[in-house]
Design a protein that fits this description.
It contains 20 helices and seven strands. It has a seven-stranded mixed beta sheet, sandwiched between helices. It is about 45% helix and about 10% strand. Its cofactor is Mn(2+); Ni(2+).
């Protein structure tokens, strides 16, 4: 198959594991048995690897039709490799170098070689490093095979997620045609986008009043907000950033670093469409993953499949929406950014300027970079447990290529920028608040190079007609939760 897998790796000392949760001011790690990192590495990741095995073995009849009997050898070698990886994880073995045809092999091996040896195993390493390594190893088994080097063992899950969401897509498509350019509409679209993962389920459970128009954006944002709490809301600052100098002919690019495919990407596209239709952006540059990643992350192949699915949809409105989006892409108002393996690397984003200067320079050409989802947030924070009241800009540790927005539902212990005392109050009220996905943040910080921050410039709180924009400070979350909840 043109690739080697060493079956030898050192086992680390199990006595290093600790019984408590990950302490503050440390990296997330599976070393702490009461952490979400430990739970993921001990239980969730082995289950995911077993699903990979079941998927590829279940596809054997179709693969034989497509590639011939020889493909069975590929499948067997991949299954054996995944089984060995499960064993390495279970025994907390040392990470192995990559020796195949991986395009990012040199970068990964350099990173692994620089890791301190005591931190180079699954449960001792930073959780971000261990988890990214696992997903990178899984795909390396496929990309080094003879026939299955482009096989996405997760694509069916992303496709099914979109196909079962027809009702939600139709409702949102009807509600978002010809929306006016306003802060109120933009803020609603941002919230729908934030909670996109839950929307289909919530739509089915929502109790509509008799006078509720199910095709009204105001009603649908109430659906999105069911049992969800926004802890920080910097939407006004984002709006002000996008509204700056909209009457000039200069390019206003928005970089959007995606999270999931499926229905969530549909809500992403609604947001992109709104921004370019209303000239909040002259172009949205969409960053997707170079390889199948974290089960549901969107790839270029997923984007192509989504466009085809919508264009060919039997529902006339969804087909029309798909055709419009295809036109926006062909006219380059929405573009897929050049492939970068940095997004599927283990590094936090504050090292981007050293690790991928070309990507960093690309981001400096945009008006705003929106980082979507929990994994992007963890990489912005370096998988470090800050005090929850620490300022967002501080936690970025100098990563400021442009104005930055983080759009994220909280699914692990890394969070910052909350009002003083709120994190502790939340913990007393809901012990699992950090991993429930029921709490979210919309956070923003200006870049140092942003002209709106310089003295003598136009007031960034005013639009091009001199009309006062939304007062940003009044939009900051003032949510307080008592110990009793």
């Amino acid at each position: 198959m043109g690739w080697r897998i060493s079956t030898r790796s050192d086992r680390s000392n199990n006595t290093d594991l600790m019984e408590g949760p990950t302490p503050r001011h440390s990296l997330l790690s599976g070393r702490y048995k009461q952490s979400f990192a430990y739970l993921t590495l001990r239980s969730r990741m082995p289950g995911i690897m077993q699903q990979v095995i079941m998927r590829v073995t279940g596809d054997v009849p179709d693969l034989v039709i497509k590639y011939g009997e020889e493909v069975r050898k590929d499948v067997k070698q991949i299954v054996d490799a995944v089984e060995r990886l499960k064993m390495e994880l279970n025994r907390d073995r040392q990470f192995l170098f990559f020796h195949g045809a991986e395009p990012d092999k040199a970068e990964w091996n350099a990173f692994l070689s620089e890791m301190p040896r005591p931190k180079r195993s699954f449960f001792r390493a930073c959780w971000l490093h261990a988890e990214c390594y696992l997903y990178r190893r899984i795909f390396s088994f496929f990309e080094n095979s003879r026939f299955l080097h482009t096989y996405d063992c997760f694509d069916h899950l992303k496709q099914e997620d979109l196909m079962i969401s027809d009702a939600a897509m139709r409702a949102l498509a009807r509600a978002t045609r010809s929306l006016p350019k306003s802060y109120d509409v933009f803020s609603k679209l941002l919230r729908i986008n934030l909670w996109g993962n839950h929307f289909e389920m919530q739509l089915g459970a929502f109790n509509f009043d008799e006078d509720d128009d199910q095709n009204d954006i105001n009603v649908l944002v109430k659906v999105a907000d069911i049992d969800r709490i926004l802890l920080v809301n910097d939407t006004a600052l984002i709006w002000n950033c996008l509204m700056k100098n909209t009457k000039t002919n200069e390019d206003r690019i928005v970089d959007y670093i995606c999270d999931n495919g499926g229905f969530e990407f549909f809500t992403d596209m609604l947001l992109f469409e709104y921004m370019v239709d209303n000239k909040l952006a002259t172009q949205v540059r969409v960053h997707v993953k170079a390889i199948p990643w974290y089960i549901s992350d969107v790839t270029r192949a997923d984007v192509d499949w989504t466009m085809k699915y919508l264009i060919e949809h039997r529902d006339e409105l969804l087909s029309t929406v798909g055709k419009k989006w295809a036109k926006l892409m062909s006219s380059e108002k929405i573009v897929i950014a050049p492939t970068s393996y940095f997004w599927t690397g283990p590094q936090p984003y504050f090292v981007m300027v050293e690790s991928d200067l070309e990507l960093y320079r690309m981001l400096t050409t945009s008006r705003l970079a929106i980082f979507k989802g929990d994994l992007n947030y963890r990489k912005l924070m370096g998988d470090y447990i800050w005090d929850s009241a620490e300022e967002f800009i501080t936690c970025l540790r100098g990563f400021r290529p442009t104005n930055i927005c983080a759009l994220r539902s909280v699914k692990c212990e890394v969070v910052c920028g909350l009002p003083e005392g709120l994190g502790d109050a939340l913990l007393r009220a809901d012990h699992n608040w950090m991993i429930s996905g029921n709490y979210g943040v919309i956070q923003y910080t200006d870049s140092l190079k942003c002209s709106c921050a310089l003295p003598g410039q136009d007031d960034p709180r005013r639009d091009d007609q001199g009309t006062a924009l939304v007062a940003a400070q009044s939009q900051r979350s003032t949510l307080l939760i008592t110990p009793s909840g």
